[in-house]
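User: Hi! Is it possible to get a structure for several chains at once, not just one? Here's what I have:
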Amino acid sequence: MYYLVITELVTPIVVALLVTIVKSRLYAGVLSVLASIISLITASILYVDVVYSGPQRIELISDWLVIPGVKPVSISFLIDPLSTLVSILLCSLSTIILIYSIGYLSDEHYDSRRYWFLMLVFIASMLVVVNADNFILLFIGWEGVSLCSYLLIGYYYGDEREYWIGGPSGKAPLHPPSYCSSRTFITVGSADSVMLVGILTLVVLTGSPYYEDLGIIKSLVSNGLPVWSVLTPLILFLTGPLAKSAQFPLHIWLPYAMAGPTPVSALLHSATMVKAGVYLIIRLLPELVGISEVVDNASIIFTVLAVAGVLSMVDGAVNAGRALELKKVLAYSTISQIGYMFLILGIAGLTETITNGIVASVYHMISHAVFKSALFLIAGILIHLSGTIYITEMRFPLKNRNNLILFLITLISCLNLLGIPPLIGFWSKEFIIEIIHFKELYIPLSIVIITTFLTAFYATRMITLIFLNHEKQHKLCDVHMMSKLLIYPIIPLIITMVYLGVIGYWFKHTLIDILTITEEEVEYISTNPLITWSTIPATVLGVVLALIRYEFRVLHLVSPTNIANLISHTINYLIHSTSMLGVSFVRRVTLLIYTVGGSIVRGVEEVFNGLEHTLNTTVRYVGMVISRYLSILFKMINYADMDSFLTLYIITLAMILTYVMIMYNLHLLITG
Amino acid sequence: MVIELILIPAITAFIVFNVRNDRLIHYLSTSSIILTLTYLLTILLFRDLPIVENYVEVSVHEHVEYSFSLHIDNVNVVLLITTLTLLPSIYLYSSTYMRHRVEEVGTPLNLYYGLLLLNTASILGVLLSYNMITFIVFYELLVLTSWALVYFYGYGNRINISLTYLVWSLVGSLLIIVGLVGVYVHLDTLSFNLSLTQDIPSWILYTLLIGFAIKMGLAGVHLWLPLTHAEAPTPFSAVLSPLIIGLGGYGVLRILKPLIPTNEFLMIILIWGIASIVYGGIGALVEDDIKRILAYSSISHMGYLTLALSIHDYVLSNAAFSYHYLAHAYSKALLFLASGVLIYVLNIRNIKLVSGVLRTCKLCGIAFIVGFLSLAGLPPFAGFISKLLIISSILRSATYLGTEFYILSIVASITTVFSLAYGVRVIKYVVFGTPKPEVSGFELPLTMSLSLIIIIVLLVITWLVPHVILGLAVATPQTD
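Assistant: Yes, the chains can be modeled jointly so their relative placement is included. Here is the combined structure:
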C-alpha cells in the first residue's frame, strides 16, 4: 500500500519534470495521459483495498518540518474511502480531459510542454489536498492548486486579441488573459493567506497539525479557553474554502478564470480547484460538528456555509441567465451548483446529520463533475468551430449530422444539470432536497425550488440560442470535419451519466455504506416521494418560459399585453435586479476600498516624499564638509591602486582607534 | 580556525586591488568566495556548535578587557550559510554585469571587486563577532565599503545618494554605540555572552532599537533605503538589500533579545513590524520602477523579520528569524539579479514599459515568477516555510503574552496579502504580455543564467529540507 500511494502521488510530478525535457509535443501529451492513467489505476486499487481492509495512514517522510512547540509535521496521507473515491473521480476526469487536450492544443503556437507540466502539477497538488492528513500538507497542495490555476489561466500570456474575454466590445469591458489570471490569483491567494492564519491558529492552539487532533479544542474550551479565540480562527479558516469554491461573496474570480484554455476550465470546474473547498469541508465535517456541540455559538460556521451556499445558488443561476459568453454561462452555473453542496453541508452541520450530509454533497460533487466537464469539453468544440465566444453569435443548425451529435451531447448534459430522471443529476439533487425536506427547513427548500426554475431557464436559453435559434444574421456553422480526439473523450462521460443515473438509487445507498463515519446508526430518510418530484414542475416552467422567450419569440408575434410577454419581462427584470445583489455589490465594495485606500496611499506618499526631500536637503548641508574631505580622498583611490589599499587600511585603523578611544573616554566619564 | 572565514576574502581583496587583468580578478574573487563557503561547510561538518575562539586579549584598563573573539553558534549559523551560499552567484553575475557598468562609469574593475570582497569580509565579521567592539568595527567597515560601492558604481545622482546612505548609517551606528556603552556600563562586559537581566534602563533598549531599525530600514527611518537600493549597482543591491539590512535584525536578536525586554517593548517591536509591512507593501504597490519596488518590498520584509523578533521565546524567535533571513535573501537576490537583466539588456527600469519577458527571455521570466511567489510564501519555495514559521511562532508567543498580542498577531499575519499583491502586479506587467516589436529574443550570458539557476535551485532545496536548516538553528537553545 505504501508503494501504491507513492506511485499515485509521485508519478504525476515525475512525469511533469520529464515532460519539460521531452522534445516532441505529442509525446509530452501521451506521457501526461499515461501518468494520469497510472494514478487512476493505483487510486482504484487503493479504493478496493481500503473498502475491504479499512482506512490507513501512510507516512512517506516523518518529521519533515518541526515547528517549535507543535507536533512534528510529517508528509503523511490518510487513505480512506472518501479520499480514494475523490481521487478516482479526479484521476478519471483528468485522464479524459488530458486526452481531449492532445486534440485541443494541436494547433497552438504556444509551447504546450508548459501546459502539460502545469496540468500534471495541478493534478498532483489536488491529489495532495485530497489525501493529506494534516493541515500543513493540505495547505501545500492547496497553494499548489492556486499557483497552477494562476499560471494555467494565464497560459496565453502573450495577450493576443483572440484570447481576450468579456465584451462584446463596445458593450462591456474586455480583459486580456494576464489580467484575468492576476485577478483570480489575488482573490484566491489573499483568501488562502487568511485561511493560513486560521489554520495556524488552530494548529498552535491544539499543538498538532493533524486533522484528528482538532478535537483537542473541545477539552481546551471546557478548561476555560475563551470561546472567541476558537471562533476567530474557525471563521478565518472558512475564507479559504469559500474563495476556492467560488462562493458568495468571494466568487468574483470564477468568471475570469475562463480566460485559460478550455480543458483547463473543464478540469478547474469539474474536479480540481472549485471542488477543493467542498472537499475540505466534507473532510472536516465530523470534527467541526464535534466542536460545535461543545463550544457555544460555534454553529455559526455552518450558518455561514449555508447562507453563502444559498446566495451563490441564486446569484449564480441569475447571472448565468444573463451571460453572453458560453463559458461564462457555465462558470456561473458552477457557482450555483457548488452552492447546493455548501447549503447541504451547512444544513448537515446545523442539524447534525453528518453522514447524510457528506453523502449528499459527495454525490452531487460526482454528478456535477461529470456533467460540467462534459459541458466544458463541448463548449471547447463549439467555440473552436464557430470562432466566437458569445452564445448570441453561434448557430449550429440541426440539419447537419455532426451538429446533431453535438446537440444531443449538450442536451443530455443539460438534462443532468436540470435533474431530469433517470440521469445522475436527478438523484444527487433529489437526495439534497430529501434531506432539506426531512429536516423541515422550508425556506431553503423553497429557494432550492426557485433555483431549479432559474437553472432550467438558463440551460434552455443556452441550448436554444446555440442550436435552435432561427435568426438570419448569425454566422452559420456547418460542421463537416471534427477532430475525433475532441469528441471521443466525451462519450465515456455521457455513458457514465446514463449508467450512474440508471443505478442511481442503489449508488446512493452504496455511498452511504462506504462513507459512514460516525459509529451511531445512520438516520434513514424517508419522505413523501411527491416532494422529490416537486422540482419537476418548476423545471418545466423554466424550460417553457425560456423557449417562449428565446425560441418562439412570442414577443414579436402576439400583442404586447400577452401574459407570456409580461412574464418574460418580469423574469428579465428579476434577473437584472437580483444580479445587482451579487456582482455589483462586490464590485462596488471593491471600488470603495480601492478609492479610499488609493487616496490614503497617495497621501502617505506625498507626506513622505516631502519628508525625504527635506531630510535630503538637510543631510546634504550637514554632509557638505565631510563630502569635500572625502571626495579628495577618493579621487586618490580613483587613480592609484596601491594608494587605495593604503587609504582603506588607514581608514580602518583610524576607525578602530577612534572607537577604542571613545569607549575608553566614555567609560571614564561614566564611572568617574 | 574561524578567523579564516574573514581572512580569505579580506586577503584576496588586497591581492585584487593590485591585479589589472580583468579575467584574473573574476577568477580570484569568485574562487575565494567558493573557498570560504567550502571552509565554512567543513567547519560545520567536523565541529560541534557552538564554536568560540579567542585570539587577542588586551587589558586596556582594569575594567576594559578587550578580547578579539569570534564564534559560530545557533544564532548566526543559518545566516552565515545564507550569506556564503548566496554570494558565489552574485560574484558570478557581477563578472558580466560589471564589465558593462565599468565601461559606463570609467572606474577600474579591481576596485569594485576589492571593495565587494572587503564588504563580504565585513558581513562575515559582523556575523562572527562575539564582542561589542569587534561588532561595531566590522559594522563600520561594512558601511564604508557599501558607501564606496554606491559612490563609484551607482546610478543616477549617486554621489548625493551615497552620502545620504552614509549619514543615515552613521547616525544609526552612533545610537548603537551609545546603547552598547550603556549595556557595558550596566553589565560590565564587552562580550556577547550576556547574562540575562531586566535591570537595564529602558532608554538604552530604545536607543539600541532605533539604531538597529535605521540599519534595517524599518518604516519611519527608512528614507535612505529606497534611494540607495534603487541606485546601487544591481549585483550589489542583491547584497545590500537582503544580506546587509538583515544584519540590523541580527543585532537586535543578538544584543537586545537576551536582555529580556518587557512586554510593552515587544509590543512596540510588533507594531513597528506591522507598520513596516503595510508601508513597504503599499510603497511597492504604487511604484513603477522595478528596483524601487524591490526596495519597498525589502522594507516590508524587514517588517516580517521584526515580527520574528517580537516573539517572546528566544528559540522560536531565532528559528523564525533565521529562516526568514534565508528565504528573503534568496528570493530578493534572485529578483534583483533578474531585474539586472532588464537593465543590462534593455536598459529599462519602468515596469510599464517592458512586457513579455517570458517570451523574450524564458529564464528571466521564470526567475521573476519564482522570486515573487517565494516572497509571497507559496510552495515549493523557501518563502513558504518562513511564512509558516513566522505566523505560527507569533501566534504561539501571543498565547503567552495576552489578548492584545493575539489580535495584533492575526492582523500581522493577514498582511502577508501585500507581498502577493505587488508580486502579481509586477508579474502581470513584466513577465506576461506581448513583447515590444523592437525587442527581439535575447540569450543571457552563461554566468548570468548560471547564477539565476543556482538561486532557483537553492530556493527549492531549502523548501525540501527545512528540518536540516531548522535543526541547525534550534538544536541547543542558548541558556547562558
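Residues 555-561 of chain A have pLDDT under 50 and may be disordered. The CA atoms of residues 606 and 612 of chain A lie 10 Å apart.

User: Great, thank you!
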